[in-house]
Amino acid sequence: MKSQTFRRADGSPRRVLYAEDQTTSRIITTAMLKRMGFEVDAVEDGERALECARHDNYDVILLDIEMPIMDGVTAARSIRADLAHCSTTPILALSAFLADSTEHTKWRDAFDSSVSKPANSNELMAAMAKALGQKLNAPEIKASQKQHDDVATALRGALSVGSWKRLAATAAEEMRQLTLTMAAGFEAADSELINHCAHALKGLALNFGANRVSNLAQNMRDAHDVKVLALMLAEISAWEKAN
Fold it and tell me: For 185, which of 25, 44, 134, 193 could close a Cys bridge (C-beta 3.0–4.6 Å)?
């Protein structure tokens, strides 16, 4: 069921332009936005986002930072500089590097706000409410938490068996790569890389209903124990097989 939280005064859904090149992130985030009641135009790069913004009106624009062809920063600055009808439209950055002040400084002037990537439904809902100047009440937050649990189930029901299995396989491979990169972070004593991978892995796992993978990612980060690596990879394979 779609939420009625984000509606215009006339009851029509608010519209979001969303650009993200990673397939799993684009599909799952689009699904979350739609379940919040938004109408979503999802594209794969900044150039296509700029073209959509040029010809249409949106209530919020959500751009990933790192994309091929045209990155999110260039797209955001072009939208602001060239499109008068978007001068007051909130533009939000999706970035895995919010904790990195150096990286953040390079692009924060182009955006009104930012959302950690990958965002879970609660983080995303809070960011969208802030961008639109809305305050969420307790029932809306509770409903969002339930929707978070239901996103993967809803997606699985909406896709063909083959499409879901391909998506799950892609998600599992992304989880493996994040796990291996996190392990490399332990070997290099790179706490920033460890935290980035843990956050990304937890978000991706939760968004696909792989709760045990999310819990292991938290344990691996908190314990700073690379011994969890084998267990993590086994759990990802088990989740993929089950899906």
Answer: 193
